[in-house]
Design goal:
This protein has about 350 residues and is α/β, with parallel strands linked by helices. The protein contains 13 helices and twelve strands. A seven-stranded parallel beta sheet has the order 3-2-1-4-5-6-10, with helices on both faces. Strands 7-9-11 form a three-stranded mixed beta sheet.
């Protein structure tokens, strides 16, 4: 019994792999291309663990996929591999189309060929679990009900359009070929190992460095915030018991505007790592908004609770405190990921805002 996890050195994927071994002995083959956000240091705890086999490679490499499937005979594929930053997709959409659309296609075709060659219980129990995002549903008005699994897809950024396309491919491979798929659409994740281009880690590392805390527009864009450990537990629940062909929305029941997130982080840093220069909120800087910025996302996670009994264990208050503490305790990890390439990206994205 083995899992093939793609994108398992990235933020959510590495959290999933680490959490998996905290409760399971089943081996994991971890395939990751190690692009800028993939980091083997996320997996340091597994360096000498024989249950974990890391392979550097691309989900678009069909020959590699076929070889790994034939060699390791996994009972499931869990697909985290994706380009995932909206701002990067605005500056360079091509990579998002290549990885999220064509890469998912290659992975589905490899999985279909492998699954088609299985027999009996192995074929019946095989699963392809595709991890996606709430951004495929578009933007909500302030008083609109939260996204359910039947909400129409209305992606508004190159990133969300590429993920919507990948979701449609997964659905089509189930309905056309019978591939036993599962899809999860999650809200905004935060927690350990988060590359500091996204809101929560960017605010933490900038504040500690005394740099401006850039807030897009008026800061009132609303997101539903999900602690990454809760997301991992939801994926395990869907993998174990989800109904084939179904989609499950995964959310934290924590709708909050971005500016509140930033001020909460500042208050926690004031408590845990006071700055002689004064409260961290002094560093908040409002900048030009992102093009086409979605105003509100909200996840209705009642289906996964009703069918699988899953609910998040963390409140936002408990999860964000754990997250800030993790970054304070892992300054070496932060320093390692803030390479010249990262600094160049931050300069590019915020120079004109």
């Amino acid at each position: 019994m083995t899992l093939l996890v793609t994108g398992g050195a990235g933020f959510i994927g590495s959290n999933f792999v680490n959490d998996w071994f905290a409760g399971h002995d089943e081996p994991v083959v971890n395939l990751d291309a190690l692009t800028y956000a993939g980091n083997l240091h996320n997996l340091d705890a597994l360096r000498n663990d024989a249950r974990h086999r890391f392979v550097q490679g691309d989900i678009g490499d069909r020959a590699l996929l076929d070889r790994l499937l034939a060699e390791h005979r996994p009972r499931a594929i869990v697909n985290f591999a994706a380009e995932s930053h909206v701002d990067r997709s605005i500056h360079g959409p091509g990579e998002f189309m290549r990885t999220n659309v064509l890469g998912t296609f290659a992975l589905l075709e490899a999985a279909r060929a492998y699954w088609g060659g299985l027999d009996g219980d192995a074929k019946a129990s095989f699963r392809f679990l595709h991890v996606s995002t709430d951004e495929v549903y578009g933007s909500l008005t302030p008083d609109a009900p939260a996204f359910t699994e039947s909400h129409a897809y209305e992606p508004n950024s190159p990133y969300s359009a590429s993920k919507a396309a990948s979701d449609h491919l997964v659905r089509a491979w189930h309905h056309t070929y019978g591939l036993p798929v599962l899809t999860t659409n999650c809200s905004n994740n935060y927690g350990p190992y988060h590359f500091p281009e996204k809101l929560v880690p960017l605010m933490i590392v900038n504040a500690l460095a005394g740099k401006p805390l850039p807030v897009y527009g008026d800061g009132m864009q609303v997101r539903d915030w999900l602690y990454v450990g809760d997301h991992c537990s939801a994926i395990r629940s869907v993998l174990a018991s989800g109904r084939v062909g179904e989609t499950y929305n995964v959310g934290g029941w924590n709708e909050k505007p971005n500016i509140e997130i930033v001020k909460t982080i500042c208050a926690l840093l004031d408590e845990l790592r006071p700055d002689a220069g004064g409260p961290y909120a002094r560093l908040i800087s409002y900048v030009k908004d992102r093009p086409g910025h979605d105003r509100r996302y909200a996840i209705d996670a009642r289906k996964i609770e009703r069918e699988l009994g899953w609910r998040p264990a963390e409140t936002f208050e408990s999860g964000i405190r754990k997250t800030v503490r993790w970054y304070l305790d892992h300054a070496d990890w932060v320093a390692n990921v803030q390479s010249g390439g990262y600094r160049d990206w931050v300069a590019t994205n915020y120079a004109q805002r």
